[in-house]
Amino acid sequence: MLLESLRQVFGAEATFRDGQDVAIENVINKKRVLVVQKTGWGKSLVYFLATKIMRQIGDGATLIISPLLALTRNQIDSTKNYGIVADCINSQINKTFEEREKVINRCNNGQCDVLFITPEQLQFGDFIELLSRLKVGLLVVDEAHCISDWGHDFRPDYRRIHQLLQILPQNISVLATTATANERVIADVSQQIGDCEIIRGELQRESLYLHKLYLPTAEEKFAWIAKNINKFHGSGIIYATTIRECERLAAWLRHNAINANAYHSDLNEEDKITLETNLINNEIKVLVSTIALGMGYDKEDISFVFHYYTPKSVIEHYQQIGRAGRGIDKAFCVLLYGGAEENKINEYFIYSSFPQQKQIIQVLNFIDNHDEVKKSTIEQEMNIKPSILDQIIKLLLIDGLIMKDSRSRYSRTIKPYFSKEEYYDSVINMKMRDYQELINFQKTNDCQMEFLTKALDDPNAHPCGKCSTCLGFWKWTDDILVEKEINKVSDFFEKSFIIIEPRKKSAVTNRKLLFMHENGLALSYYHELLGQEASRGKYVDNYFSDVLVKASADKLKRFFRDQEIRVSDLTIIPIPSNRRQKLVPEFAQRLANTLQCKYAHILAKRPNEPEQKASLNSRHQEQGIRDYLYIHKDVNLNTQQILLVDDFVDSKWTFTVATELLGETFDNISVTPFALAVTSGSD
């Protein structure tokens, strides 16, 4: 019956890959199964074909918990091949209870066979109540490594799946699938979903040709990508860390007549769908993406995957290169690594993967001291980053330590709290060891594919004979960069404008700001050559070089020329600092001399100001600056154009508050901020 069903979908010559038929048979027989198989093996075939067969014999619908909307859209399209109907419930499409109820009813009436949901939906009590009405034949946990705290892409809401299993009938089939789980993650997932049969296969990807290359600067990476991307036929993906990196690299490729677009979480769903479709149809050469286009995205003929950055683990790297070569004989995966900034970014993400124990206790005590409290109130009163607060609240809800009412107010339960600091620390330490393993991968002289699959505890790991290490040469790209190619990137950076957009509302009052600065300008991003030059100037030399003065003057001249403003009409005002009192003012004075414009050092800060990085959310950042920044001279500027100058810009609150102070003091002025480097921009 299984082979006949397979051939109804894929033709008379179709055969199962090793283990697929066993997994389907176990699912049909109401067992709990964990499938750990390489990317491209066909894990979705297992649950879609099982669904087709189970629906034919009268079983309930298949409920699939899937982590990414892009993956869900991709898979809904593929169900049509099986003659089954799929739908999804998520916050983007069906927002009301009534809309969601209609989807559940369609599943129960046989009009829909597969229902996709994201794990985040499991936090809503009304949705859980709806799911309790769903006639489920099979529960699928896709990308199941997300269940595990030890997994490379842990999602707290996946821990609710254990609770979901308590309300669903005990006789349903359960299937968990992943390509990126080592032994410790497998053990954890097995415990979460209950006693299950593990079907594990070889993780070696025969179609992939791996290469790695040390390029320590953004300029070198940009130059290499532009030089080599057209050597590969078809389309592909470039993975980058931050939204700004994606946008800028895509712009650089378009500048070189390469059809490229950025893909990330800031895009609206309509734009994401368009880009996904364009990539599927090979209408664009490359998507430059954050991890938003990652797990399970199934395009058979992706011919290359580049990593513009160093992934946080070998597991993450394996998972992302797995987008390539799924239905073609040869695909190329190149890791471009190097630069101290990469390590800083990755270490930040790792250490932020769980909140600090003291923060958890602070939030718990705050809620305990209030009968009912909204999240916005907690944000206002507590100095915690919004993303960390979201994570803390989610973990406290999952552990049953707090509850949320219909008005989105939180209150404490009677359940006692026991510290998990030791456990969380052990997870973070393990993630740091995983990252060190990736650093070791960069340096290894062994087979690259074997290194990756060994790290995933594949007992069948062996040399691939295809990576640049095994071959001893690499003929598919030209890795030698000449000065002209790097200078071309530097020129692109110099001529492109990094805009500092104004904030429009106060985080303290939640009201519109009375005075807002114009669109400002940054000289560079922190990880670029000029950004690193600024970093050395601030933290090593305590002096900003003439190179930075000249580059800033040149860029500002072009920026204001486009706005038909004469730089000689500007008055430059430096942002003060109590810690490095002369650094920015001296730079601003030299910049004014170069631009032949006025200079006024009229802003100051009161003593004992705490470090800005100690303020972790917008409210505290803004209030901290308001408490210490002031105008210390009563002067007549005799100008309408002010250029505010600082070294680095992140939250933009310093520029925002300084603009308000100046706007309240002087009439008819226009304020434009300028910074040497942007340090923000992570997803």
From TrEMBL:
InterPro entries for this protein: DEAD/DEAH_box_helicase_dom, DNA/RNA_helicase_DEAH_CS, DNA_helicase_ATP-dep_RecQ, Helicase_ATP-bd, Helicase_C-like, P-loop_NTPase, PRTase-like
GO CC terms in record: bacterial nucleoid; cytoplasm; replisome
Enzyme kind, highest EC tier: isomerase
Keyword Nucleotide-binding listed: yes
Superkingdom of source: Bacteria
GO biological process: one example: DNA repair
Any one GO molecular function term: ATP binding
Pfam families per record: DEAD, Helicase_C
Enzyme Commission designation: 5.6.2.4
Family per similarity comment: Belongs to the helicase family. RecQ subfamily.
Designated name of the protein: DNA 3'-5' helicase
Organism field: Paenibacillus baekrokdamisoli
